[in-house]
Amino acid sequence: MPFVLFLLERQRNMSGNAMSKHTRTDWERLAQQTDEEIDTSDISPLTEAFFARAKLLIPPAMIGRIIELDADIMQWFKNHDKDYPRSINRILRLYMETHNK
Predict the structure, then answer these.
(1) Per residue in 6-55, pLDDT tens?
(2) How far apart are the C-alpha atoms of 84 and 74, rounded to whole Å?
(3) Which H or E run includes 99?
(4) What is the largest CA-CA distance in the chain?
(5) pTM surpassing 0.70?
(6) Nearest in space to 88 (alpha carbons), one of 59, 58, 66
(7) CB-count burial class (<10 Å; 0-12, 13-18, 19+) for 38
(8) In whole angstroms, what separates CA 99 from the centre of its chain?
(9) How far is the C-alpha of 43 from the C-alpha of 55, rounded, in Å?
(10) 3-state SS, residue 6
């Protein structure tokens, strides 16, 4: 789900406003739904065979920007700074500069 939300957010922000293409999707209603309220009855179950063939595809623009952080660390940054990615970058840069001496 987070990846889907990321894509929706990118679509909204690409031109600085709402998506330019007309859509009949009720985005407001969709955003309010919980996972349990989403009808997934028409989706086939994901089998072991599916996962054996599955590939992780990372958009080229995101390569080099993906790091693994523990969930509690990420949540701490989100709770303390709305611009948390930039804060994480500043902290890592300070660490790097300190250890390059």
Answers:
(1) 444 444 444 444 556 778 888 888 889 999 998 889 998 889 999 999 99
(2) 8
(3) helix 84-99
(4) 58
(5) no
(6) 66
(7) exposed
(8) 31
(9) 19
(10) helix
